[in-house]
Amino acid sequence: MKRVAMLLVPLMLAACASTPTTTTDTAPGTDFSKYRTFTWGDKPDTGNPLAGQRIVADVNAQLQAKGWTESDQGDVTLVAHVATSQKQTMDTFYTGTRYGGWGWRGVGMGMGSAQTVVNTYDVGTLVLDMFDTSTQQAIWRGTATATVPSSTKAQNAKIDAGIAKMFADFPPGSAASK
Known about the structure:
The chain is α/β, with parallel strands linked by helices. It contains 3 helices and 6 strands, in the order αββαββββα. Helices cover 27% and strands 36% of the residues.
């Protein structure tokens, strides 16, 4: 059992250190240079109001760093959604001989043992959509997906990292995105 724990610790540390997976998509032909203001249509409902406030603050900070300002009647309307789901992995550890106990005569089957450990974890996904306020057409979508750590500090770090990565090449077509 000690060996199993020693094998699992590096895997858990690697999972904690991983950055969120992000994707972005842009409506073809969208000229982002004409947008300078934004407003929130729907803020994320996370089930945890503090996490929702952090997401809004991070998105606001990213857009403001790009020269955009928040306004009641923004050029762009933001809509954010958060979803979580549970995933499972199974790890099987074997003990005994390399060939499962087979001897040279094919006897000894059943020697050794196997232990399977089921790991259940939460995966969170943030979806942020941007709409041209005047036409109500979607112009940009960003998603960030990551495992949800149990500690608040680690959750905040994942939120920060996911949103920063999502906006790394924003706005599309700018010098920052080339």
